[in-house]
Amino acid sequence: MKHYKSVFCAVLAAVLLTACGASAPSEEPAPSPVAVTFTDALGYEAVIERWDRVVSLYGSFAETWLLAGGQLVGTTSDAIEERQLDLGEAAVVGTVKEPNLEAVIAAEPDFVILASDIAGQAELHQALADAAIPHAYFRTDTFDEYLSMLELFCSMTGRQDLYQQNGLAVQAQIQEVLDTVAGQPQPTALLLRAYSTGAKAKGDDNLAGVILRDLGADNLVTRHESLLEDLSLEEIIAADPDFILVTTMGSSDEAAMAYMEETFGSNPAWAGLSAVKSGRYVLLPRELFHYKPNARWGESYAYLAKILYPDLAAQLS
């Protein structure tokens, strides 16, 4: 990933100066934030001079900004519907796939946070640039990408304590899980993403796949790349994975799993798979494996590790 560069210690210095001023009143104006400059996930140079009025066009990134001690004047509906964030009087500026540019501009932001992998947001770059609204694109499919984003945000807010609490402490939790499972026999797994009208095999281009890889599992698609294009039941039966893990998309888990049952579950060959017979056909919770887990990333690693290595469950927090 592109590391979000140029984190400035002067931001913290400005915060400390402001705090000192609170105990010794002065007619001098409070110091302004020190601008940060970095290259974002789409390769654009972002220059952010203020962050008093921030709009996030992705619920996950809205939460990350809050975890860094920031406040929001606007965000998309998924921040409320999926993450149940308490946003006070912040405006809803459309949906994550279809943000409302007029509503974004009306919020008078001095910083807009966008997702680089959502087409409807990537297309807003020129319009925001024409409106002279500072903005930056991010992507967080891995914990390291989340940590880098949090580090940048905490440098802006001056809350290094929150970087420790919501970043470095989570990193230590993940490392403890990885150390616990190191050297274990490598289980085979098929990772599926299901929705109401279909299902696809997934590699490590998503957070569940990255965690599966990091935990030492052998994802079938690394040896059977054809599964990425065609979810062949015959190929799955021949490989007979130890685990079948499912994440879902759409409005409900029920609709996605109904498709799985109708398409695969009614087939006796599917029922004969080792994973299905042994209770290792598992639906993963979307709050840990579909939505970006952010400060809960350590929970995601521990949850999946307990499934893959049940003998170590007592050692995994």
Summarize the structure.
With 317 residues, the protein is α/β, with parallel strands linked by helices. Helix content is 42%, strand content 15%.
Task: Fill in the keyword field for this structure.
single chain, alpha/beta, Rossmann fold, 2 domains, 12 strands, disordered N terminus
Provide structural commentary.
The chain is of the alpha/beta class and 317 residues long. The chain has two domains: 9-158, 3-Layer(aba) Sandwich (Rossmann fold), CATH 3.40.50.1980; 183-315, Rossmann fold, CATH 3.40.50.1980. It contains 15 helices and twelve strands. β3 (54-56), α2 (59-67) and β4 form a beta-alpha-beta unit. α7 (143-157) runs antiparallel to α8 (160-181) and α8 (160-181) runs parallel beside α15 (297-308). The chain is globular and about 60 Å long.
Which H/E pattern describes the elements? Answer: HEEEHEHEHEHHEHHEEHEHEHHHEHH
- The fold-level CATH name of the largest domain is Rossmann fold
Give the class from helix and strand content and strand pairing: alpha/beta
Q: Name the CATH superfamily assignment of the largest domain.
A: Nitrogenase molybdenum iron protein domain
Q: What is the topology, as strand order, of the major beta sheet?
A: 5-4-3-6-7
Outline type: globular
What can be said about the biggest beta sheet? 5 strands, parallel
Radius of gyration: 22 Å
Number of domains: 2
End-to-end CA span:
28 Å
Summed over residues and divided by their number, the pLDDT gives a mean of 89
- Helix residue percentage: 40-55%
CATH class of the largest domain: Alpha Beta
* CATH-level-2 architecture of the largest domain: 3-Layer(aba) Sandwich
Give the amount of beta strand, in percent.
5-15%
Number of helices: 15
How many E strands?
12
Q: Report the uncertain regions.
A: 1-31
